[in-house]
Write a structure and sequence with these properties.
With about 140 residues, this protein is of the alpha+beta class. The protein has 3 helices and 5 strands. Helices cover about 30% and strands about 20% of the residues. The structure holds guanosine-5'-monophosphate (5GP) and zinc ion. Guanosine-5'-monophosphate binds next to strand 2.
Length: about 140
């Protein structure tokens, strides 16, 4: 536990939350400032700042809970779909430094946009640049 982490304090029961799912390793609760009814956050109970900081099996558990909750959440609020996403790192908009997945119910004409819309101009990448980036990723993913 990180003493000054809001989500660790929720896990410890020091800050109340509206919990919708809990097991030994994962907790899911409503966002306090929801973007839509049913907006749910899914977190590892252990403190990890970024997605890539979690051990693989814990990351799999977190994603499994997100996947498991999508249908119940959509059903509960009669949604037409959902945005399922992580803001990973401060530059990407992560405000709470304890990794968390968002499940945000979506509705026809809700005025929201796809994840693509959060980006500005698209980069103009030539084949060499793409090959270099892909090679680095492949090597490091082994
Ligand atoms: P981020 O921008 O880090 O991806 O999202 C953080 C989310 O946590 C925000 O949507 C915000 O409303 C939510 N949040 C911040 N503090 C609390 C809290 O104390 N309780 C709950 N339930 N949600 C919180
Ligand atoms: Zn934490």
């Amino acid at each position: 536990m990180s003493e000054d982490c809001i989500f660790c304090r929720i896990v410890a029961g020091e800050i109340p939350s509206r919990t919708v799912y809990e097991d030994d390793d994962v907790l899911a609760f409503f966002d306090a400032n929801p973007l839509a009814p049913g907006h749910t956050l899914v977190i590892p109970k252990a403190h990890h700042e970024h997605v890539q900081d979690m051990p693989n099996d814990l990351a799999a558990d977190v994603f499994a809970v997100m996947q498991r909750l999508v249908d119940p959440i959509e059903t509960a609020v009669d949604a037409d779909g959902s945005t399922v996403a992580f803001n990973n790192g401060e530059v990407a908009g992560q405000e709470v430094p304890h990794t968390h997945g968002h499940v945000v119910p979506r509705f026809e004409d809700d005025g929201g946009r796809p994840i693509h819309s959060i980006f500005g101009d698209r980069p103009d990448l030539d084949d060499d640049e793409l090959d270099d980036i892909a090679a680095t990723i492949s090597e490091r993913a082994e």
